[in-house]
Amino acid sequence: MLEGYCWPRSALPGDPVALHVSTDAETFDVEVAREGAEREVLWRATGLGGLEHPTPDDASSAGCNWPSALEVPVGIDWRSGYYSVTLTAGSERADAFLVVKPAAGKESPILLVLSTATWDAYNDWGGPCLYTGGTTVSLERPMARGFLTKPEPARRKAQPTPDPEAMYFIDWARENGLSDWSGGAGWFNWEMPFLSWAERNGYSVDVAVSEDLHFDPDLLQGHRLFVCAGHDEYWSWQMRDGLDAFTATGGNAAIFSGNTCFWQIRYDSELRTLTSFKYNADADPVIGTADERFVTSAWVDRRIGRPEFSTIGLSFSRAGYARYGNATPRSSGGYTVWRPEHWALEGTGLMYGDSLGQKDAIVGYEVDGCDLTMDQGRPVPTHTDGAPETLQVLASAPAHIWAQDEQPSRYVNDPGDLECVVKAIYGENWQDHVDEYRFTHAVLGCFTVPGAGTIFNAGCTDWVCGLSDPDVDRITRNVLDRLSL
Question: Strands 315-322 and 365-369: what pairing?
Fold first, then answer.
């Protein structure tokens, strides 16, 4: 047995980080490496004395509380980035991580904020996650197998080609001893390939974690561009405040993510746990209090009064899933281009009606959109759902939000995403509005905050799966080049 985690999970250069380890081996080794375009080993230690510590019954919600085995001496010259922490003892291996934030005055124009709140929501190490009955999850515990690294070639959550005989992710994960939930979150799936691509192409990218965005209102100062990639589903009120303040004063955002900012969370005061009641939001104890706006429901919930449209332009509530389960299972996997004249598509050669990202099925798994209508042959937002007045729909693709009888991986009595969304928005008369949300579209969009920043939103989790495609590559470069200046 060998397990470990770092605490705190992010630090400034020169700040030590504790490594908490439990093992039945007499000794173990540690290697710390910065991961990016290249893997750079910064520190090793061998022959460390091993001790086994009990895992509390409530580890998933209250943490492990293991003592520190050693301190990782984060160097004053360590660059901002994601650092893998690899533990080995004989043939056993465990994976942990730490993030080095940029030192003040040494920021790069681009800041990638890892979606660690979403990793934690899906992490089922030591007990239930937010998808298997939990409402509070701990940050102080190991990540389950598959979140930080996977065997190659790894399978994607959504099928890149519709093949009824193909092995789906959950089967592949179990064959390889990984968590069922590691397909939906974690460093390996999207953020690792994005950061590797960015650094290989000459972009200097700083890194932070969700908790940093929550805790530090000045985190984005010194940067020009906020970036998230893959699946950044869980946001606190303070996280949104931080990004909104940044874009309101001229900062920009690039959302290469889907299902972004869908659920509200609350961190405890020490940033050791996060809570979200999700589908059971009516049981959240803030209901009926002066703090009801912090109810941990979907951000579109009428009781919150702050749909995510105002921050990121789009919403999962108006899109849902694509090429996943029975949600558009045989759609093309690409976006249909509507506005090739937009600066984000410059240099691609794409034309009206062309398909974008079809080869790699970038419109897959979870996607975001808005209510649309047609205007002179091209879709435009209706703005009835809160989509920004300046939002331009550059491309779109069919999507579908699951009803209760369609979802493949929930408890039997849980509501579907469709019912949950409509009830959250409309309350008592929600059933009258279900059909308005059932059939939807993923949207590739861009908007400006009046007099301030620009927000580009790819509207899909699997955008980075298409970075080898010349058109997806060029659009990503266009966004980074323009918005990081």
Answer: antiparallel
**Quick count: other Cβ atoms within 10 Å of Cβ 76?**
10
**pLDDT above 90: residue 77:** yes
Q: Which amino acid is at 308?
A: E
Q: Six-digit token pair at 375?
A: 């205007």
| pLDDT of 160 | 74
Classify the C-alpha dihedral 474-243-102-271 as positive or negative. Answer: negative
- What's the rounded mean pLDDT across residues 327-354? 97
Per-residue confidence band for 56, with pLDDT thresholds at 50, 70 and 90: very high
Distance CA 234, CA 119 (A): 9
Q: How far is CA 451 from the centre of its chain?
A: 28
Q: What is the pLDDT of residues 133-177, one digit of tens each?
A: 999 999 999 999 999 999 999 999 987 776 655 668 999 999 999
| Per-residue b or e along 311-334, where b marks 16 or more CB atoms closer than 10 Å to that residue's CB | bbbbbbbbbbbbbbbebbeebbbb
- Tell me if 397 sits within 8 A of 334, measured CB to CB: yes
Give the mean pLDDT of 422-440.
Answer: 95
Whole-number Å distance between alpha carbons of 385 and 298:
14
Query: In whole angstroms, what is the distance from residue 405 CA to residue 411 CA?
Result: 11
What lies within 8 Å, CB to CB, of 443 at 6+ separation is 314, 319, 368, 369, 370, 372, 393, 395, 396, 457, 459
Query: How far apart are the C-alpha atoms of 443 and 445, rounded to whole Å?
Result: 6
pLDDT digit string (tens) for 389-424?
A: 999 999 999 999 999 888 766 655 677 899 999 999
- Per-residue pLDDT for 81 more than 70? yes
The pair of structure tokens assigned to 245 is 């303040």
